[in-house]
Amino acid sequence: MTWLTVGEAAQILHIGERAVRAATQQNRYQHRYVNGMGRGGKQLRIALESLPDKAQALYRGEVPPPVDILQFTGKQRDEANAKAWVVEQYQHEGLSPDDFVSWFNSNNPAEDAITKSKLFRWQHKYQGKDVAELIDRRDGHNRGKDTIPEDAWELFYSLYMTQQKRSVRLCHHITSMEYPDIPSYKAFERKIKTIPMYAILRYREGLKAFTDALPYMERSKLDIASNDIWFSDHHLVDVFVKSADGTKVIRPWLTVFFDARSNRVVSFLVRNADPNATAVKKCFRLGVEQNGVPNEVYFDNGKDYRSSSFSKDYPMSLVKQLGVGTIYATPYHGAAKTVERFFGTFTNRFSRRFKTYTGCNAKIRPEEMQIPNKEILPLALTLDDFIAQLSAYIDEYNQTPNSGIDMEGKCPDQVYAENLAVKRVVRDHDALRLLCGNTEERVVNKSGVSIKNNHYYNDALLSHMGERVMVVYDPDNIDKMAVFDMKGRAICLAEAKIRTPFRHTSEEDYIRAAKEKKAARAIVAKYKPAREMDIHEIVARNQLMEKTFTESGDPDIVEHIAPQATENSAILKATDHTETTRRIREEDSVSATLLGFYQKQA
């Protein structure tokens, strides 16, 4: 197949390049896009074989077979000859277009009057002196319906088919400035009706409207079980509530995980903050702790769902450690995200209960809520009270009969219980918290690892000085950081390093510093070159290592979490020095010192 540029196609078709592009938009010619300089780095190509035979012959340098003019009616031949005569007279007289049109119309009946646009159009078609090109080939049924010049329609079409949704009158007015002799806007209105609905939706309404209007399959859920697939999405609640400090009104964000088989809400999270990956992971953790591990999760395409935690390519990702598959919704396709149907029900059945219901936008905001926020504040519930009522509603929703697909009028709780064939659980919640924590990469320095403007230390880090490591922490508790090597193996649980007061140093500070130095020396001794050791020492060490390996059993492998995650959890627990740190902090705190002073005075 031969592919032509727009310019090449326009040349052999004897039309403008804009007209060629318009024809491809209407799928009149087969076309494709290739990489190159153009809109979005793409160039349009038109298939030669999809063009009229005459154009193909012209491109190949062939003489096209003459058109048998006798195949047309006598009236069609007479009209074509009359047009050819007008063009020849115009070229012979040497008058300007305006003067010729005026001269011709004054010397001919009104029904034969011409316009400049007609004159130019006829002249363009007759440039090869072929009268057949001037024949009106429309049948009687279609005559009179499309008297719009092709170039004028191409300009009108480019103005009309945009998301600015310009009116027919405006597009017609702008087009008439370049083509004064075009028909009235009524003719354009009639032609618009021939444009397919999907094309109108795509170019005037946008990609989302077009995609949502596409036909989609109704899927049966009888072949899946509970916990096979969980959906998740966010929703900005249409209710004003008080902020945590009670000083302003807010609209909280709701994140949910939703079981596909039963339509049951398996977990939810309310936050006074925009959605992010942290919220998704926390909500997911709550769902797993309460309901077990899903086989797959079905996500939106937002960046909070595209984080490394949900990537199979990332060694510490929770989906990889838990063996959970990921599915992403079709971009901009609302019908693909079933959880959005729940949000519609949620708004109608729950959000509208509140005096401070505000609607999803200003257009539908109740009139009584169109008041300053300071006047709304006394009417609003506190965030804690709102969450309590939301929790009660979720329970109510899960226990209410549902008319959805394959629900058989049963409530989500019942359908969930009846179809839960296997409940996969994570017994080690500490390991789960780590998997659902935030992860950052750091380089170990002499103070341990530095993150959030603080240092975190453990003796185990001394043997990893200068190495790049992964630091994982629970955003709800940053007193401790779990540290892993770049292969995902646990190193230690590092604690926030206590800062010694600038003007005061306690005995405990010296003891702690001495311990850190001693640990560093122990690392040096441990990694002393083996060739300096006595041969008997080497044999004894090997025997000890062999004995240790033989006596130690396999780690407990939880079926639904990677063995490495369980092993990591055990290592981190072994390096947890929380009690020692707590005692040091208590003894060295200012409040403890003051308390001791006042006790002595008493």
Quick take:
With 602 residues, the chain is an alpha+beta fold.
Describe this structure in words.
41% of the residues lie in helices and 14% in strands. By secondary structure, it is an alpha+beta fold. A 6-stranded antiparallel sheet has the order 11-14-15-16-13-12, covered by helices on one side. Strand 14 (468-474) and strand 15 (477-484) form a beta hairpin. The longest helix is centred in the N-terminal third of the chain and has 20 residues, at 74-93. The radius of gyration is 38 Å and the shape is elongated.
Q: What is the CA-atom radius of gyration, in angstroms?
A: 38 Å
Helix content: 40-55%
Distance between the termini: 102 Å
- Biggest pleated-sheet summary: 6 strands, antiparallel
What are the main properties of this structure?
6-stranded antiparallel sheet; 23 helices; 16 strands
Secondary structure: elements and pairs:
Elements: E1 3-4, H1 6-13, H2 17-25, E2 31-35, E3 42-47, H3 53-59, H4 74-93, H5 97-106, H6 116-125, H7 150-160, H8 168-178, H9 185-192, H10 197-205, H11 207-213, E4 229-236, E5 241-242, E6 249-250, E7 253-259, E8 265-271, H12 277-291, E9 296-299, H13 318-322, E10 325-328, H14 339-349, H15 373-376, H16 383-398, H17 412-418, H18 429-435, E11 438-443, E12 449-451, E13 454-457, E14 468-474, E15 477-484, E16 490-496, H19 507-526, H20 535-551, H21 563-574, H22 578-588, H23 590-601
Parallel strand pairs: 4-9, 9-10
Antiparallel strand pairs: 1-3, 2-3, 4-7, 5-6, 7-8, 11-14, 12-13, 13-16, 14-15, 15-16
